[in-house]
Design brief:
Strand order of the largest sheet: 2-1-3-4
Number of domains: 2
Distance between the termini: 30 Å
Order of helices and strands: EHEHEEHHHHHH
Radius of gyration: 18 Å
Helix content: 55-70%
Shape: globular
Strand content: 5-15%
Number of strands: 4
Number of helices: 8
Bound molecules: glutathione
Length: about 220
């Protein structure tokens, strides 16, 4: 049976949502972040080969990386509509958003948070230099890329209820977490991005997501 090693306030919520949506048997082990570093605790790092969340174990298999885990779990559910089959009308949209989440959106958000931390946490004497560098990087690279991606998200969700059509797929399960971060920390506001916020509302009201949040037990996925 699959065991999800679930780190609070992390990307692991996606795997929990997937397992709840599939309704397959699984075990969950809950881990809190280290109170000082806010990173995964030593017990978690002992399980995860990269020291990161999410990670699952399944017999002799230990698997990290969100989308690898999602594909592994869906391999056991070949008829699930959560992963449109090759040739399906929504296959291309599914592949695009499933991979855009981890390949583009999540790294851009992570870079943005690291840059924000640089400006607030660097020593006082170099803080203004750090702010200048971060501002220049954001203006030249991260900001335009993030806004272009948010624009595509808004457009896609203006055309269908979910990212790959009118029913939930695993693309929504991975995009949802990143979009919560984008809405709270990266300027994806409701006035400019109404379709994105409609998606977030429907995700938060989706029964299997509600069950996942209850199992998580922290009431928020934000650090
Ligand atoms: N690309 C990886 C990223 C994993 C990652 O950075 N996870 C964060 C949680 S959102 C983490 O483990 N943070 C705690 C730590 O680094 O100790 C994935 O999709 O699994």
């Amino acid at each position: 049976m699959i065991t999800l090693h679930h780190l609070e306030k992390s990307q692991s919520i996606r795997v929990l949502w997937l397992l709840e949506e599939l309704g397959v048997p699984y075990e969950i082990k809950l881990y809190d972040r280290d109170p000082n570093t806010r990173l995964a605790p030593a017990a978690y790092k002992a399980v995860s080969p990269l020291g990161t969340a999410p990670v699952i174990t399944d017999g002799a298999v230990t698997l990290a990386e969100t989308n690898a885990i999602i594909d592994y779990i869906l391999d056991g559910q070949p008829d699930s509509p959560l992963r449109p089959k090759p040739g399906a009308a929504n296959r291309a949209a599914y592949l695009f958003w499933f991979h855009t989440s981890q390949g583009s959106l999540q790294p851009l958000l992570t870079n943005k948070f690291v840059m924000m931390a640089l400006t607030t946490r660097s020593p006082f004497l170099v803080r203004s230099v750090a702010k200048g560098l971060v501002g220049a990087l954001d203006a030249a690279f991260f900001g335009p890329r993030l806004r272009a991606l948010m624009g595509e998200i808004e457009k896609a969700l203006g055309q269908s209820k979910w990212f790959a059509g009118d029913t939930l797929t695993a693309a929504d399960i991975v995009m949802g977490y990143s979009m919560e971060l984008a809405a709270h920390r990266a300027g994806m506001d409701a006035a400019t991005y109404p379709n994105a916020h409609r998606f977030l509302k429907q995700m938060r009201e989706y029964p299997s997501y509600i069950r996942a949040m209850e199992k998580d037990g922290k009431g928020t996925i934000l650090l």
